[in-house]
Write a structure and sequence with these properties.
With 85 residues, the protein is an all-alpha fold. Helices cover 72% and strands 0% of the residues. The chain has a domain at 27-62. Helix 1 (2-41) packs antiparallel against helix 2. The radius of gyration is 20 Å and the shape is elongated.
C-alpha cells in the first residue's frame, strides 16, 4: 500500500514540473507575440517596444531555465576542480 501511495505521490509531483514548463513556454510565446505586434504597429519607432522586448527576453530565460531542468542533458554545466598532488 505504501508503495502505491509513493508512486502516486511521485507522479503528482513530477506533473508539477511539466505544468510549469508548459506555462513558461506559453508565457514566452505570448510575450513574443506581443512584441512582434508592437513592432508591426511601430515600424518607424521600434524603441516604443523596448519594455515588451525586455519582458520577452525575461520570459525566454525563464523558459530556457525550465527546459534545462526537465530535459535530460539540456544546457547543463559542471565545474570540475582537479588538484595536483
Amino acid at each position: 500500500m505504501r508503495f502505491v501511495l509513493a508512486i502516486i505521490g511521485f507522479c503528482i509531483l513530477g506533473g508539477c514540473g511539466i505544468a510549469a514548463k508548459v506555462e513558461s513556454r506559453s508565457d514566452y510565446q505570448q510575450s513574443a507575440d506581443n512584441y512582434k505586434a508592437c513592432l508591426a504597429a511601430n515600424a518607424a519607432t521600434p524603441q516604443n517596444c523596448e519594455g515588451l522586448r525586455l519582458a520577452m527576453e525575461t520570459d525566454e530565460r525563464k523558459y530556457n531555465a525550465m527546459s534545462a531542468g526537465i530535459t535530460p542533458g539540456a544546457q547543463r554545466n559542471a565545474t570540475v576542480t582537479i588538484l595536483n598532488r
